[in-house]
Design a protein that fits this description.
three-stranded antiparallel β-sheet, alpha+beta, four-stranded mixed β-sheet, 18 helices
């Protein structure tokens, strides 16, 4: 009798859960909002053999519903979310009505995972205060001050590739430029010589790669974090692997101790953080300082190396464009006594067009996320977005919209010549008050690396590279597992 009662309760519970989830998945149809096909338990997230990078799935939904509604419904597991489709609505969310969407709504667990409490994830007043304090770090004056140090790392990149020329006619370019940006960030942020260009297996480089390797059982925990933040904290979901946390905490602690004991002042990112740590009014804790140094390192080396590798890939495919870009570098250097100066780099305008076009075609962060922090009414469809609802901005889809960019799949740097830049639809670094704070640094290191490589080498596509490229589904950032290029000395 007990077993009958027990199994009856289980069946009733399963039926109740099924009906509740079914009703949950009717949310968008009940509100008259279009929504793509839903599957349990992932919602509108594709999985299995049909799994593709988020940039491509949101592109599909963008193209499917853009002419029907300013938004379409999504489900992150069983949590309703919005994919914004209308460019005017998107601009309002990011800029005009920012006070309704000032948070990203990204899960982080500061007590268990201190490195996750960085500027990118922080919310509300805490984010605003820290943002205002860190903004001067990335001024044009600071970029000019760091320039000579960045060029030294760029010249090391050239030397390493010259040595590779003697061994092989081709190489996987993403790994090489990742080592370049690792050394660049290590020098400019921590004042450390990482030497990953000379030794790819140094710990700094190894730990940098591990940042993007998800913790054990990450997929299950990630789904819980998307839908149930409190439950994710209870089960101890970490964004950063424990060994990575220990390594970066040790690096930051030793760097801080050395600088304070020896009164070292390098006028770099770490110095800015140290001043914030030592100030009387709301000083940073060591954990908070470490979190900001960590995100600067991670964002700086990964996104810049991705942009640089995609740009070289496109130039290798388009030899006429590569030749024009190389002439741009050579002419600018000729006008500045053959020296790579800050002014010479600024004169390489066609290089800017090439990088912008790469950012358009391959935006490193192809999907922005905001959280609705106040109920928000969309008059055109008579719908009120509820507080707490995630909102996704499909940057990749916008950058590939033929309404904004003619022949969007073609690499055409000239579309970014003066006066032709589509400011409304070009958002590789986001938009509004949460615009990427380190965009100047990222662009400068990318441009230095590209200029020095083009000056010294000619690139072509290796047969090992599969075209079209297939984006990795293991990373949020837009990337591929291998871009092989053939190269020769100029």
């Amino acid at each position: 009798m007990f077993l009958v009662y027990f199994f009856s309760c289980v069946i009733l519970l399963v039926c109740a859960c099924y009906l509740w989830i079914r009703k949950r998945f009717q949310y968008w149809s009940d509100n008259g909002i279009p929504c793509p096909k839903i599957t349990f338990p992932l919602g509108t997230i594709q999985s299995g053999k049909h799994r593709v990078h988020s940039s491509l799935s949101t592109l599909k939904h963008y193209q499917q519903f853009k002419k029907l509604s300013p938004i379409c419904g999504q489900f992150l597991t069983i949590q309703p979310a919005i994919l914004a489709l209308d460019i005017d609505l998107i601009k309002n969310i990011l800029i005009k009505d920012f006070e309704n969407f000032h948070d990203r709504g990204i899960y982080f667990n500061e007590s268990l995972d201190p490195l996750s409490a960085h500027l990118f994830n922080l919310e509300g007043r805490r984010w605003k205060n820290l943002r205002s304090k860190l903004t001067p770090t990335f001024s044009s004056g600071k970029m000019k001050f760091m320039f000579s140090t960045m060029v030294v790392v760029g010249l090391q990149l050239v030397k390493v590739l010259e040595m590779e020329c003697e061994k092989t006619p081709e190489l996987e370019i993403k790994d090489l430029v990742s080592r370049f940006t690792t050394d660049m960030i290590g020098t400019c942020a921590f004042g450390l010589d990482c030497n990953s260009l000379k030794n790819p297996n140094v710990e700094f480089r190894t730990m940098g790669k591990k940042v993007f390797e998800p913790p054990t059982n990450n997929r299950i925990k990630m789904f819980l974090a998307l839908s149930y933040e409190r439950l994710a904290k209870i089960i101890g979901y970490r964004l950063v692997r424990e060994e990575v946390t220990k390594f970066f905490m040790d690096v930051v602690t030793s760097t801080v101790d050395h600088r304070q004991k020896n009164n070292v002042n390098r006028n770099d990112f770490m110095d800015i953080l140290l001043r914030l740590k030592n100030q009387n009014d709301q000083p940073l804790t060591l954990n908070e300082l470490a979190a900001q140094a960590f995100v600067f390192f991670v964002a700086g080396f990964e996104t810049s190396s991705t942009v640089l590798s995609f740009t070289l890939f496109e130039l290798a495919q388009n030899q006429n464009i590569q030749k024009k870009a190389r002439n741009d570098v050579i002419n600018a250097l000729a006008n500045h006594n053959e020296e790579m100066t800050y002014e010479a780099l600024n004169d390489m305008t066609y290089l800017d067009f090439c990088i912008d076009e790469s950012l358009r075609k391959y935006p490193p962060l192809p999907l922005l996320v905001r959280k609705c922090t106040k109920d928000y009414y969309i008059e055109s469809i008579n719908y009120t977005m509820k507080k707490g609802m995630p909102v996704m901005i499909p940057i990749y889809a916008i950058h590939h919209d033929p309404d904004f960019y003619e022949n969007p799949e073609s690499f055409i740097p000239e579309r970014f010549e003066t006066g032709s830049k589509n400011q409304r639809a070009f958002m590789p670094f986001g938009e509004g008050p949460r615009f990427c704070i380190g965009n100047r640094f990222g662009l400068q290191q990318t441009k230095i690396g590209l200029a020095l490589l083009l000056k010294n080498f000619k690139f072509s596509l290796s047969e090992k590279t599969k075209v079209p490229l297939s984006f990795s589904t293991k990373k949020i950032i837009l990337s591929v597992d291998g871009i092989w290029l053939s190269f020769e000395k100029n």
